[in-house]
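Moderator note: this is an archived Q&A kept for reference. The question asked for a predicted structure of one protein chain; the sequence and the answer are reproduced below.
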Amino acid sequence: MNWEPVPYTLPDFTDLAQQVRRAASETARRSGADAAAVLGAGYEPLGLDEICARRAVHLSELAAHAEAQRRTARELLTGHDGSALDDELARLTAERQDAVQTVARLSAMSSVRPGDGYASEVAIKGGFGRWLRRMGPPVLLLIALLAVDIPIYYETFLDLGLSGLMTVALGVAAVLVFGFGPHMYGRKFRVWQEEGTAPRSAREFGWRDWLSRPSMMVVLPVIWFVTIAAVTWTRLQTLVSLAQPFPGDPAPVIGPAIATVGAVPMLILLLALVLFTGIIAMETGRRMGNPNDRLLADARSKVKELDERLSTAAQDARAAARYRHRLAEVSDPGKPYENEMIEQIRRGYDLMESTYVSAHIEEFGAMSPDVAARAPDILADHRRAHH
């Protein structure tokens, strides 16, 4: 956004001065004047009035040109609306301030709801060491439990699969459902906590509320528990079947343990193994699923984006301000922008007149030594009379 008045081309006054110098000698000879006339009062060289007339025409053309530029500047200034840029700059500034406050709040405060007690910033820039200290023990324990669970899942589904590949597929599906399913549930549970939709106390959410308005956060664990109970029972049946060898097979190893401990304690043991695996997977998901971390990352990205947009908007606003200032400067008749060009024209024509008078007087210098001293007086008389 830029505007400047159309420049007015000024002549080369040095070249014009040389031209009038050459013309002055011939004009002096044609004038028929002598030394006495030059020394007389009120003498004005022939042709000097033409230079004066050219000065007036030049100044008149410049005045008309400047007035046309002022009209253009006034029209542009009337049609220019800088409030939109100012409003946009103010809006972006307010948005950035809100985003900065969000970043500061999420970086400094712990979880809003009961959580891990860490500020949201820790999960993003706390460093790998801090993350390992927080998440290492439960993750290692979860890996150990899955290392025990996976072979049992394989044996559990061995008879259900028509091939080894199907058995592996069923085992992998079971691990995903009963191992990683609780992890994803833990992440959702953390969102449930942080957003304030979880019941805060039994007074606020009684048993009737649980029954009349069941939440998926409650229904899913119930379904999961019923499912793992069925899978655990299937596990137990698998272990019992393994404890009954075929004729000719070596003596079973599991059989005496079941016979000694009993089916019910073994069922409880297997159920506890699955429960602990699910609970630990859920806790790792709950710790890693703080939605404030995502909000903090989004707020930081927004601050960065708004900084770039603010920089661009500020540049546009400064350019618009310079544009308005220049239009107002040109359109103000009280401070004509063409004053400098007027002075250049006056100095140029003063040079032409001085050169012309000096060259004109030189033609009469041989007639009288006093003629040369008359040049400043003649020039001063002319300027008093015409300028």
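Archived answer notes: The chain has two domains: 13-89+333-386, 121-289.
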